[in-house]
């Protein structure tokens, strides 16, 4: 399995990160990674179809929020917290600590 491409630090934008974090499913994915660390793609509890979840992973990766690594046929997702904290200090903490009722349901 080929490693997916990830944006360099200078390619990550605030608008891209905010867009990626604006979706409740993607936010749930990020919260699970933040709480538990690296996770295998098939282990997220978000209640969407596998194909839909794959699209959410792509948006998060392309925005620079997550990193996906391949190990055999498995994919593992981690949060690029160090990069996000360097580029946008405090942003991730604010988003992750926001009360759930602040996030509008879809």
From TrEMBL:
SMART domains: HTH_ARSR. SUPFAM superfamilies: Winged helix' DNA-binding domain. InterPro entries: ArsR-like_HTH (IPR011991), HTH_ArsR_DNA-bd_dom (IPR001845), HTH_MetalResp_TranReg (IPR051081), WH-like_DNA-bd_sf (IPR036388), WH_DNA-bd_sf (IPR036390). One of its GO terms (molecular function) is DNA binding. Keywords: DNA-binding, Transcription, Transcription regulation. Gene3D superfamilies: Winged helix-like DNA-binding domain superfamily/Winged helix DNA-binding domain. This is Transcriptional regulator, ArsR family.
């Amino acid at each position: 399995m080929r490693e997916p491409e990830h944006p360099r630090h200078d390619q990550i934008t605030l608008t891209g990160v905010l867009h990626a974090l604006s979706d409740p499913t993607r936010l749930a994915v990020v919260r699970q990674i933040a709480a538990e660390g690296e996770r295998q793609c098939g282990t997220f509890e978000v209640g969407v179809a596998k194909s839909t979840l794959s699209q959410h992973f792509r948006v998060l990766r392309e925005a620079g929020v997550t990193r996906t690594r391949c190990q055999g046929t498995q994919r593992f997702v981690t949060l690029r917290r160090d990069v996000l904290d360097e580029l946008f200090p405090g942003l991730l903490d604010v988003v992750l600590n926001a009360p759930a009722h602040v996030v509008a349901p879809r």
